[in-house]
Design goal:
Blueprint (H helix, E strand, L loop, with lengths): L1 H5 L11 H15 L12 H9 L10 H21 L2 H11 L9 H9 L8 H7 L15 H17 L5 H9 L2 H11 L5
Helix pairs in contact: 3-4, 3-5, 7-8, 8-9
Length: about 190
């Protein structure tokens, strides 16, 4: 689910996805001249791991030069990280160091927080709820903003099918799952100290 919506070429690039970087730059330039397009980033999972854990003092309103400088540094470090770590190690660090909102840090904690399940027991539908939280654990929160999360979840499931991570039947089963009612019920039944 995460690879599908965050970095579909994760297993084939060497830390930097130059195709996605170029597309993000073109998209940014078009937005700057008034051609409104949906914004997306060019960062790979490896770059996001570095940004979230090395460049922790970056700010939302940083200057264009500051952002470019940080992105170049992220790309350099991503290539270096991929020289010494396997893809599975990088991915494991990535999902275990992410904040998923509601006090859930790491994917296993998120599985418990949102679904009261062990990570290994998550369904495709549930994984597709958690993956959007990498983008924004606040705006994509399935408890507070289920309608926003649902749009990104749908994109995630479609992308998983498109990339061959699930069958057509599995995707249809995930689409049909009333996952947000289940999340609301689990959240309502939690004790305040949990």
């Amino acid at each position: 689910a995460f690879v599908s919506i965050e970095d579909e070429r994760f297993y084939s690039h060497e830390g930097v996805d130059y195709k996605r970087t170029a597309a993000a730059i073109i998209n940014l330039a078009l937005n700057q001249i008034g051609v409104q397009r949906e914004e997306f980033g060019g960062s790979t999972i490896t770059q996001q791991l570095i940004k979230n854990n090395v460049f922790t003092d970056w700010i939302t309103g940083e200057s264009t030069f500051g952002k470019i400088k940080r992105k170049v540094q992220e790309q350099y470090l991503a290539i270096k990280v991929e020289d010494v770590m396997s893809k599975d190690q990088i991915f494991e660090y990535y999902v275990n160091l992410l904040s998923f909102g509601n006090g859930a840090n790491g994917i296993a904690t998120a599985a418990k927080a949102y679904f009261d399940k062990d990570l290994k027991d998550l369904t495709l539908s549930e994984a597709a709820v958690l993956a959007p939280l990498a983008l924004s654990p606040v705006r994509q929160n399935p408890i507070n903003h289920p309608e926003v999360n649902a749009k990104r979840r749908e994109t995630c499931i479609k992308k998983m099918y498109e990339l061959g991570f699930c069958s057509y039947e599995e995707a249809q089963e995930a689409f049909a799952d009333d996952v947000y009612t289940r999340i609301a019920e689990i959240h309502a039944n939690k004790k305040p100290d949990n």
